[in-house]
Write a structure and sequence with these properties.
The complex is a heterodimer. Chain A is an alpha/beta fold. In chain A, 48% of the residues lie in helices and 14% in strands. In chain A, strands 2-1-3-4 form a four-stranded parallel sheet, with helices on both faces. In chain A, strands 6-5-7-8 form a four-stranded parallel sheet, with helices on both faces. Classes of the chains: A alpha/beta, B mainly alpha.
Protein backbone atom coordinates (compact mmCIF):
# COMPACT_ATOMS: atom_id res chain seq x y z
CA UNK A 1 0.00 0.00 0.00
CA UNK A 2 1.63 3.20 -1.17
CA UNK A 3 1.33 6.52 0.60
CA UNK A 4 2.04 9.86 -1.05
CA UNK A 5 3.55 12.66 1.03
CA UNK A 6 5.40 15.91 0.69
CA UNK A 7 9.06 15.35 1.52
CA UNK A 8 10.33 18.68 2.82
CA UNK A 9 14.11 18.58 2.91
CA UNK A 10 14.63 22.18 4.03
CA UNK A 11 17.24 24.62 2.75
CA UNK A 12 20.78 23.71 3.64
CA UNK A 13 20.37 20.01 2.89
CA UNK A 14 20.92 20.86 -0.78
CA UNK A 15 24.63 20.83 -0.03
CA UNK A 16 24.14 17.06 0.07
CA UNK A 17 22.11 16.05 -2.94
CA UNK A 18 23.13 12.48 -2.13
CA UNK A 19 21.23 12.65 1.17
CA UNK A 20 18.09 13.99 -0.50
CA UNK A 21 18.22 11.34 -3.21
CA UNK A 22 18.89 8.52 -0.76
CA UNK A 23 16.09 9.64 1.53
CA UNK A 24 13.64 9.64 -1.40
CA UNK A 25 14.77 6.17 -2.46
CA UNK A 26 14.58 4.65 1.02
CA UNK A 27 11.09 6.05 1.54
CA UNK A 28 10.02 4.78 -1.88
CA UNK A 29 11.28 1.31 -1.00
CA UNK A 30 8.87 1.16 1.94
CA UNK A 31 5.90 2.53 0.05
CA UNK A 32 6.24 6.26 0.63
CA UNK A 33 6.18 8.27 -2.60
CA UNK A 34 7.34 11.85 -2.32
CA UNK A 35 6.39 15.18 -3.77
CA UNK A 36 9.73 16.79 -3.04
CA UNK A 37 10.02 20.36 -1.78
CA UNK A 38 12.83 22.47 -0.42
CA UNK A 39 15.21 25.34 -0.92
CA UNK A 40 14.62 29.02 -0.22
CA UNK A 41 11.16 28.89 -1.82
CA UNK A 42 10.10 26.62 1.03
CA UNK A 43 12.20 28.17 3.80
CA UNK A 44 10.54 27.91 7.21
CA UNK A 45 11.87 31.33 8.21
CA UNK A 46 13.57 30.19 11.39
CA UNK A 47 16.71 32.13 10.57
CA UNK A 48 14.76 35.38 10.44
CA UNK A 49 14.38 36.10 14.15
CA UNK A 50 15.84 39.52 13.42
CA UNK A 51 13.35 40.29 10.65
CA UNK A 52 9.86 39.25 11.65
CA UNK A 53 8.28 40.55 8.49
CA UNK A 54 10.38 38.11 6.48
CA UNK A 55 9.85 35.36 9.05
CA UNK A 56 6.08 35.74 8.95
CA UNK A 57 5.99 35.87 5.17
CA UNK A 58 8.12 32.77 4.77
CA UNK A 59 6.21 30.79 7.38
CA UNK A 60 2.75 31.55 6.01
CA UNK A 61 3.84 31.08 2.40
CA UNK A 62 5.33 27.67 3.10
CA UNK A 63 2.33 26.46 5.10
CA UNK A 64 0.01 27.67 2.33
CA UNK A 65 2.05 25.85 -0.30
CA UNK A 66 1.80 22.63 1.66
CA UNK A 67 -1.92 23.21 2.18
CA UNK A 68 -2.29 23.47 -1.59
CA UNK A 69 -0.16 20.39 -2.29
CA UNK A 70 -3.09 18.01 -1.99
CA UNK A 71 -1.13 15.85 0.45
CA UNK A 72 -2.20 15.32 4.02
CA UNK A 73 1.28 14.62 5.37
CA UNK A 74 4.55 16.53 5.25
CA UNK A 75 7.64 14.50 6.06
CA UNK A 76 10.51 16.61 7.35
CA UNK A 77 14.23 16.03 7.16
CA UNK A 78 15.64 19.07 8.95
CA UNK A 79 15.12 19.21 12.73
CA UNK A 80 15.14 22.98 12.63
CA UNK A 81 12.34 23.10 10.04
CA UNK A 82 10.44 20.45 11.97
CA UNK A 83 10.69 22.48 15.18
CA UNK A 84 9.73 25.73 13.51
CA UNK A 85 6.74 24.09 11.85
CA UNK A 86 5.52 22.77 15.18
CA UNK A 87 5.83 26.12 16.92
CA UNK A 88 5.93 29.42 15.07
CA UNK A 89 4.66 28.35 11.63
CA UNK A 90 1.54 26.57 12.78
CA UNK A 91 1.20 29.18 15.50
CA UNK A 92 0.42 31.79 12.86
CA UNK A 93 -1.00 29.76 9.97
CA UNK A 94 -3.48 26.91 9.85
CA UNK A 95 -1.99 23.73 8.46
CA UNK A 96 -4.18 21.17 6.72
CA UNK A 97 -1.57 18.46 7.03
CA UNK A 98 0.19 16.29 9.58
CA UNK A 99 3.92 16.52 10.10
CA UNK A 100 6.22 13.58 10.71
CA UNK A 101 9.95 13.32 10.73
CA UNK A 102 11.57 10.93 8.29
CA UNK A 103 13.14 8.92 11.12
CA UNK A 104 9.67 8.25 12.53
CA UNK A 105 8.34 7.24 9.11
CA UNK A 106 11.19 4.84 8.40
CA UNK A 107 11.30 3.41 11.89
CA UNK A 108 7.57 2.64 11.76
CA UNK A 109 8.23 0.71 8.54
CA UNK A 110 11.43 -1.04 9.59
CA UNK A 111 9.72 -4.40 9.17
CA UNK A 112 9.51 -3.50 5.48
CA UNK A 113 13.08 -2.25 5.37
CA UNK A 114 14.65 -5.26 7.06
CA UNK A 115 14.19 -7.75 4.20
CA UNK A 116 15.56 -5.19 1.74
CA UNK A 117 18.94 -5.08 3.49
CA UNK A 118 20.58 -7.63 1.21
CA UNK A 119 24.10 -6.27 1.06
CA UNK A 120 26.35 -6.70 4.06
CA UNK A 121 28.40 -3.77 5.26
CA UNK A 122 31.23 -5.18 7.35
CA UNK A 123 32.07 -2.12 9.36
CA UNK A 124 31.97 -0.72 12.86
CA UNK A 125 30.54 2.76 13.10
CA UNK A 126 29.99 5.34 15.81
CA UNK A 127 26.66 7.17 15.68
CA UNK A 128 27.06 10.93 16.06
CA UNK A 129 24.15 12.26 18.11
CA UNK A 130 22.84 15.55 19.50
CA UNK A 131 20.64 16.22 22.49
CA UNK A 132 18.42 18.90 21.08
CA UNK A 133 15.77 17.40 18.80
CA UNK A 134 13.34 16.91 21.67
CA UNK A 135 10.28 16.77 19.41
CA UNK A 136 11.45 13.45 17.95
CA UNK A 137 13.82 11.07 19.71
CA UNK A 138 15.66 10.48 16.46
CA UNK A 139 18.87 9.01 17.86
CA UNK A 140 17.51 5.60 18.93
CA UNK A 141 15.32 5.48 15.82
CA UNK A 142 18.36 5.87 13.58
CA UNK A 143 20.34 3.37 15.66
CA UNK A 144 17.53 0.83 15.18
CA UNK A 145 17.50 1.48 11.43
CA UNK A 146 21.25 1.02 11.18
CA UNK A 147 21.02 -2.25 13.11
CA UNK A 148 18.92 -3.63 10.27
CA UNK A 149 22.06 -3.62 8.10
CA UNK A 150 23.76 -7.01 8.15
CA UNK A 151 27.40 -6.84 9.15
CA UNK A 152 27.20 -3.31 10.53
CA UNK A 153 28.23 -2.86 14.16
CA UNK A 154 26.64 0.30 15.53
CA UNK A 155 28.22 1.98 18.55
CA UNK A 156 25.99 4.35 20.47
CA UNK A 157 28.05 6.20 23.05
CA UNK A 158 26.83 8.02 26.14
CA UNK A 159 27.97 11.35 24.67
CA UNK A 160 25.51 13.51 22.78
CA UNK A 161 26.61 16.86 21.45
CA UNK A 162 24.72 19.98 22.51
CA UNK A 163 22.38 21.61 20.03
CA UNK A 164 19.96 19.90 17.69
CA UNK A 165 22.62 19.57 14.99
CA UNK A 166 26.15 20.82 14.46
CA UNK A 167 25.21 24.02 12.65
CA UNK A 168 23.49 25.22 15.83
CA UNK A 169 26.94 25.40 17.40
CA UNK A 170 28.45 27.63 14.74
CA UNK A 171 27.88 30.82 16.79
CA UNK A 172 29.88 29.26 19.63
CA UNK A 173 33.08 28.08 17.95
CA UNK A 174 34.60 26.64 21.12
CA UNK A 175 31.59 24.35 21.52
CA UNK A 176 31.91 23.11 17.95
CA UNK A 177 35.60 22.45 18.53
CA UNK A 178 34.69 20.36 21.57
CA UNK A 179 32.21 18.37 19.51
CA UNK A 180 34.79 17.69 16.82
CA UNK A 181 37.26 16.58 19.48
CA UNK A 182 34.65 14.21 20.92
CA UNK A 183 33.99 12.76 17.48
CA UNK A 184 37.66 12.04 16.95
CA UNK A 185 38.05 10.58 20.44
CA UNK A 186 34.95 8.38 20.11
CA UNK A 187 36.02 6.81 16.86
CA UNK A 188 39.49 6.15 18.26
CA UNK A 189 38.14 4.76 21.52
CA UNK A 190 35.91 2.31 19.70
CA UNK A 191 38.50 1.30 17.16
CA UNK A 192 36.71 2.50 14.06
CA UNK A 193 37.29 5.05 11.36
CA UNK A 194 33.65 5.73 10.51
CA UNK A 195 31.26 8.23 12.01
CA UNK A 196 27.57 8.20 11.04
CA UNK A 197 25.57 11.40 11.04
CA UNK A 198 21.82 11.82 11.47
CA UNK A 199 21.48 15.32 10.03
CA UNK A 200 22.83 17.18 7.03
CA UNK A 201 24.58 19.98 8.89
CA UNK A 202 26.60 17.49 10.92
CA UNK A 203 27.56 15.85 7.66
CA UNK A 204 28.54 19.24 6.26
CA UNK A 205 30.63 20.32 9.22
CA UNK A 206 32.23 16.97 10.02
CA UNK A 207 32.92 15.39 6.62
CA UNK A 208 36.27 17.18 6.48
CA UNK A 209 37.46 14.81 9.23
CA UNK A 210 38.49 12.54 6.38
CA UNK A 211 41.27 15.00 5.65
CA UNK A 212 42.17 16.05 9.17
CA UNK A 213 41.89 12.73 10.98
CA UNK A 214 41.26 9.98 8.46
CA UNK A 215 37.68 9.53 9.66
CA UNK A 216 35.04 8.68 7.09
CA UNK A 217 31.81 10.54 7.83
CA UNK A 218 28.65 9.26 6.23
CA UNK A 219 24.96 9.88 6.66
CA UNK A 220 22.72 7.05 7.79
CA UNK A 221 20.46 7.17 4.73
CA UNK A 222 23.45 6.52 2.49
CA UNK A 223 24.29 3.42 4.51
CA UNK A 224 20.69 2.25 4.15
CA UNK A 225 20.74 2.66 0.36
CA UNK A 226 24.11 0.95 0.19
CA UNK A 227 22.78 -2.02 2.14
CA UNK A 228 19.74 -2.10 -0.12
CA UNK A 229 21.90 -2.14 -3.22
CA UNK A 230 20.45 1.12 -4.48
CA UNK A 231 22.90 3.10 -6.54
CA UNK A 232 22.80 6.74 -5.53
CA UNK A 233 25.03 9.71 -6.14
CA UNK A 234 28.20 9.99 -4.06
CA UNK A 235 28.58 12.60 -1.31
CA UNK A 236 30.09 15.17 -3.62
CA UNK A 237 30.22 17.84 -0.94
CA UNK A 238 32.54 15.60 1.09
CA UNK A 239 34.58 14.83 -2.01
CA UNK A 240 35.03 18.53 -2.67
CA UNK A 241 35.84 19.34 0.93
CA UNK A 242 38.45 16.61 1.01
CA UNK A 243 39.89 17.32 -2.43
CA UNK A 244 42.98 18.89 -0.90
CA UNK A 245 43.43 22.06 -2.93
CA UNK A 246 41.46 24.72 -4.73
CA UNK A 247 42.59 23.33 -8.05
CA UNK A 248 41.41 19.86 -7.12
CA UNK A 249 38.03 21.21 -6.01
CA UNK A 250 37.59 23.10 -9.27
CA UNK A 251 38.55 20.02 -11.24
CA UNK A 252 36.15 17.84 -9.28
CA UNK A 253 33.19 20.17 -9.71
CA UNK A 254 33.99 21.02 -13.29
CA UNK A 255 33.95 24.28 -15.20
CA UNK A 256 30.44 23.76 -16.52
CA UNK A 257 28.84 23.53 -13.11
CA UNK A 258 30.90 26.40 -11.75
CA UNK A 259 29.81 28.55 -14.68
CA UNK A 260 26.18 27.92 -13.74
CA UNK A 261 26.62 29.75 -10.46
CA UNK A 262 29.19 32.25 -11.67
CA UNK A 263 32.94 31.96 -11.22
CA UNK A 264 33.18 35.05 -9.05
CA UNK A 265 30.42 33.95 -6.67
CA UNK A 266 31.95 30.49 -6.54
CA UNK A 267 35.35 31.90 -5.63
CA UNK A 268 34.04 34.28 -2.97
CA UNK A 269 31.18 32.33 -1.40
CA UNK A 270 31.57 28.64 -2.16
CA UNK A 271 35.29 27.96 -2.24
CA UNK A 272 36.02 29.36 1.26
CA UNK A 273 33.36 27.06 2.73
CA UNK A 274 34.76 24.04 0.91
CA UNK A 275 38.29 24.84 2.09
CA UNK A 276 37.21 25.13 5.73
CA UNK A 277 38.02 21.96 7.68
CA UNK A 278 36.89 20.91 11.16
CA UNK A 279 38.95 22.36 14.00
CA UNK A 280 39.73 20.62 17.24
CA UNK B 1 4.94 47.07 11.51
CA UNK B 2 3.07 45.95 8.45
CA UNK B 3 -0.17 44.08 9.10
CA UNK B 4 1.09 40.70 7.90
CA UNK B 5 3.52 40.61 10.81
CA UNK B 6 0.72 40.89 13.34
CA UNK B 7 -0.05 37.16 13.67
CA UNK B 8 3.59 36.43 14.40
CA UNK B 9 3.84 39.27 16.88
CA UNK B 10 0.66 38.00 18.54
CA UNK B 11 2.09 34.49 18.72
CA UNK B 12 5.30 35.80 20.26
CA UNK B 13 3.40 37.96 22.72
CA UNK B 14 1.13 35.09 23.80
CA UNK B 15 4.10 32.86 24.47
CA UNK B 16 5.97 35.59 26.31
CA UNK B 17 2.93 36.18 28.52
CA UNK B 18 2.63 32.48 29.26
CA UNK B 19 6.34 32.23 30.07
CA UNK B 20 6.20 35.26 32.35
CA UNK B 21 3.17 33.80 34.11
CA UNK B 22 4.67 30.36 34.69
CA UNK B 23 8.39 30.89 35.19
CA UNK B 24 9.47 31.18 38.84
CA UNK B 25 13.11 32.05 38.07
CA UNK B 26 14.28 28.97 39.93
CA UNK B 27 17.23 28.80 37.56
CA UNK B 28 17.23 25.04 37.05
CA UNK B 29 17.24 25.53 33.27
CA UNK B 30 20.48 27.50 33.50
CA UNK B 31 22.01 25.00 35.89
CA UNK B 32 21.67 22.11 33.39
CA UNK B 33 22.57 24.12 30.30
CA UNK B 34 25.77 22.88 28.63
CA UNK B 35 26.61 26.24 27.10
CA UNK B 36 27.61 28.64 29.94
CA UNK B 37 31.04 27.00 30.13
CA UNK B 38 31.78 28.66 26.80
CA UNK B 39 31.45 32.22 28.03
CA UNK B 40 33.53 34.06 30.60
CA UNK B 41 30.59 36.44 31.01
CA UNK B 42 28.61 33.62 32.61
CA UNK B 43 31.29 32.43 35.02
CA UNK B 44 30.08 32.49 38.61
CA UNK B 45 26.54 33.48 37.68
CA UNK B 46 23.62 31.88 39.48
CA UNK B 47 20.67 30.43 37.63
CA UNK B 48 18.08 32.49 39.44
CA UNK B 49 19.78 35.79 38.63
CA UNK B 50 20.33 34.86 35.00
CA UNK B 51 16.74 33.77 34.46
CA UNK B 52 15.44 36.89 36.20
CA UNK B 53 17.45 38.85 33.63
CA UNK B 54 15.92 36.83 30.81
CA UNK B 55 12.45 37.64 32.12
CA UNK B 56 13.45 41.32 32.14
CA UNK B 57 14.30 40.97 28.44
CA UNK B 58 10.88 39.45 27.84
CA UNK B 59 9.27 42.30 29.78
CA UNK B 60 10.95 44.68 27.32
CA UNK B 61 13.00 46.21 30.13
CA UNK B 62 16.32 45.01 28.77
CA UNK B 63 18.30 42.41 30.62
CA UNK B 64 21.60 42.07 32.38
CA UNK B 65 24.60 41.54 30.09
CA UNK B 66 24.84 38.00 31.43
CA UNK B 67 21.20 37.28 30.56
CA UNK B 68 21.69 38.64 27.06
CA UNK B 69 24.80 36.52 26.73
CA UNK B 70 22.91 33.38 27.71
CA UNK B 71 20.25 34.05 25.08
CA UNK B 72 23.04 34.46 22.53
CA UNK B 73 24.66 31.19 23.55
CA UNK B 74 21.55 29.01 23.30
CA UNK B 75 22.14 26.29 20.72
CA UNK B 76 18.82 24.52 21.30
CA UNK B 77 20.26 21.64 23.29
CA UNK B 78 16.87 21.08 24.94
CA UNK B 79 18.46 19.85 28.15
CA UNK B 80 16.58 22.61 29.94
CA UNK B 81 13.13 21.36 29.00
CA UNK B 82 12.90 18.33 31.32
CA UNK B 83 14.67 20.30 34.05
CA UNK B 84 11.87 22.85 34.38
CA UNK B 85 9.57 22.03 37.32
CA UNK B 86 6.86 24.36 35.97
CA UNK B 87 6.64 22.90 32.46
CA UNK B 88 7.87 26.10 30.91
CA UNK B 89 9.78 25.44 27.71
CA UNK B 90 13.00 27.30 28.60
CA UNK B 91 14.40 26.72 25.13
CA UNK B 92 11.43 28.58 23.67
CA UNK B 93 11.81 31.18 26.43
CA UNK B 94 15.36 31.87 25.27
CA UNK B 95 14.27 32.00 21.65
CA UNK B 96 11.64 34.58 22.55
CA UNK B 97 14.24 36.48 24.56
CA UNK B 98 16.62 36.45 21.61
CA UNK B 99 13.90 37.73 19.28
CA UNK B 100 13.23 40.51 21.77
CA UNK B 101 16.92 41.25 22.32
CA UNK B 102 17.40 41.53 18.56
CA UNK B 103 14.92 44.40 18.66
CA UNK B 104 12.44 42.56 16.48
CA UNK B 105 9.43 43.27 18.69
CA UNK B 106 10.12 46.97 19.12
CA UNK B 107 12.30 46.89 22.22
CA UNK B 108 15.82 48.36 21.90
CA UNK B 109 18.23 45.92 20.26
CA UNK B 110 20.73 44.36 22.63
CA UNK B 111 22.15 41.75 20.27
CA UNK B 112 23.53 42.02 16.74
CA UNK B 113 21.75 39.87 14.16
CA UNK B 114 24.62 37.64 13.16
CA UNK B 115 22.34 35.62 10.89
CA UNK B 116 21.70 38.60 8.62
CA UNK B 117 23.87 37.27 5.83
CA UNK B 118 23.01 38.64 2.38
CA UNK B 119 24.55 35.58 0.73
CA UNK B 120 22.83 32.94 2.87
CA UNK B 121 20.18 32.00 0.31
CA UNK B 122 22.46 32.68 -2.65
CA UNK B 123 24.86 30.04 -1.32
CA UNK B 124 22.00 27.59 -0.87
CA UNK B 125 20.86 28.21 -4.44
CA UNK B 126 24.43 27.83 -5.64
CA UNK B 127 24.85 24.46 -3.95
CA UNK B 128 21.45 23.41 -5.25
CA UNK B 129 22.64 24.21 -8.77
CA UNK B 130 25.80 22.19 -8.18
CA UNK B 131 24.00 19.19 -6.66
CA UNK B 132 20.58 18.92 -8.30
CA UNK B 133 19.52 18.48 -11.90
CA UNK B 134 17.70 21.20 -13.81
CA UNK B 135 14.53 19.13 -13.64
CA UNK B 136 14.86 18.69 -9.89
CA UNK B 137 15.49 22.39 -9.39
CA UNK B 138 12.41 23.22 -11.44
CA UNK B 139 10.18 20.70 -9.73
CA UNK B 140 11.42 20.71 -6.13
CA UNK B 141 12.38 24.33 -5.51
CA UNK B 142 9.72 26.19 -7.48
Amino acid sequence: MSERVVFWYGCNAVRHGDIIHSAIEVMRAVGIESDVAGGPAYCCGTIKDGNLQAAAGMATRTVEKFNQSGRDKVVTWCPSCHRHMGTFMTGIATANFEVSHITEMLHARRHLLAPLMQHRIERKVVLHTHTGFHEVDANPLVADLLRLIPGLEVVVTDYSAPGHMCSALAPVPAALIDVVRHCVDQTATHGTDTLVTVFHSCQRLLCGLATTDGIKVTNYVNLLTQAMGIATAPDEYAQWKNAGSEAAIVESIGAERIAKIGAEFFAKQVMPELRRLPEK
Amino acid sequence: MKPDTDPLLDYIERNIERTLADCTSCGKCFDVCPMPQYSAKLAGQTGGDIVAGVLDILHGKGGTPAAVEWTRLCTQSATCIPACPENVNPMLMLRLARITALGSTGAPAQLPDLKRDPNFFRRINAFASLQLSEAELAEWQR
